[in-house]
């Protein structure tokens, strides 16, 4: 019953997001209008800072800190910026010398603009502190995160949004893209800047926003063009109409 209730709530939020796009088309570079209230209402509150659940997550982060390798920290720093090119390696492209994919990059920027707005609204509503602000033994291995809010993880949301968007273009690569998104998000816990529950909420946010974006005719048109561009570089057959 709980799962059904959550599914209905998520579906209702998607419909409201689509309605906001259709009836209040005030966006500039985005696919959706910035009407976030219904979206925020679909998220449950994170655990309180002094709760047993938070303590368990902090202990998990301390354990990750104790075992994180130099390679893991270097990978997290390399993924510090939210760029779709960080996912090209999962597609079999040369990440060090990526091809020019202007349509893919434009699509990614527009998707990211929407995801950022909706994630920020949830962050501002719950205002969860970063884990290292609660547990002083945590020493982040990524800088420039101090003062930002923790729930949901915007980094996790970006990773899952890119995996979903690129999977629309190259569905054959969905599994490897999702693996990449999972590792991209997990780095934030390895470096002590997000709770594991922040990462899960970030994925949830990305999936809900992307579902609404896919309902827009603009996205369908732009993703078809981006798919043709990317699949040409990868030397893959064109997607069948409607995919």
What's a quick, concise take on this entry?
With 243 residues, the protein is mainly alpha-helical. It is built from ten helices and no strands. Helix 4 (70-78) crosses helix 8 (174-190).
Structural description of this entry:
The protein has 243 residues and is mainly alpha-helical. It has a single domain (2-234), classed as Phosphatidic acid phosphatase type 2/haloperoxidase (Vanadium-containing Chloroperoxidase, domain 1). The protein is built from 10 helices and no strands. Helix 5 (102-126) packs across helix 9. It is globular and about 50 Å long. The two termini are 32 Å apart. Residues 1-5 and 18-26 have low confidence and may be disordered.
Instruction: Supply the CATH superfamily name.
Output: Phosphatidic acid phosphatase type 2/haloperoxidase
Cα-atom radius of gyration: 18 Å
> Which residue ranges are poorly predicted, with pLDDT under 50 across at least 5 consecutive positions?
1-5, 18-26
The overall strand count is 0
Number of domains: 1
Q: What oligomeric state do these chains adopt?
A: single chain
- Main sheet characteristics: none
Strand proportion: under 5%
What structural class should be given to the helix and strand makeup?
Answer: mainly alpha
Bulk shape: globular
SS element count, helices? 10
Series of secondary-structure elements, N-terminal to C-terminal: HHHHHHHHHH
Mean pLDDT: 89
Helix content: 55-70%
CATH architecture: Up-down Bundle
Give the distance, in angstroms, between the N- and C-terminal Cα atoms: 32 Å
Under CATH at level 1, the class stands as: Mainly Alpha
In CATH, the topology is named Vanadium-containing Chloroperoxidase, domain 1
């Amino acid at each position: 019953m709980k799962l059904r209730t959550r599914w209905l709530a998520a579906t209702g939020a998607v419909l409201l997001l689509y309605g906001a796009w259709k009836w209040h088309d005030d966006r500039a570079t985005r696919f959706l209008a910035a009407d976030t209230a219904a979206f925020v209402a679909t998220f449950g509150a994170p655990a309180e800072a002094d709760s047993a659940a938070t303590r368990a997550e902090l202990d998990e982060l301390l354990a990750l800190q104790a075992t994180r390798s130099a390679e893991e920290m270097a990978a997290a720093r390399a993924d510090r910026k939210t760029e779709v090119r960080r996912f090209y390696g999962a597609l079999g492209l040369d990440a060090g010398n990526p091809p020019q994919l202007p349509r893919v990059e434009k699509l990614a920027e527009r998707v990211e603009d929407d995801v950022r707005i909706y994630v920020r609204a949830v962050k501002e509503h719950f205002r969860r502190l970063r884990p290292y602000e609660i547990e002083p033994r945590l020493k982040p291995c990524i800088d420039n995160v101090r003062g930002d809010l923790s729930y949901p993880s915007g980094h996790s949301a970006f990773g899952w949004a890119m995996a979903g968007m690129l999977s629309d273009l190259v569905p054959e690569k969905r599994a490897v893209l999702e693996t990449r998104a999972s590792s991209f998000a997990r780095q934030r816990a390895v470096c002590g800047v997000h709770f594991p529950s922040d990462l899960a909420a970030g994925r949830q946010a990305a999936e809900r926003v992307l579902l609404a974006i896919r309902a827009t005719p603009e996205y369908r048109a732009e993703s078809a063009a981006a798919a043709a561009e990317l699949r040409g570089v990868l030397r893959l057959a064109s997607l069948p109409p409607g995919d």
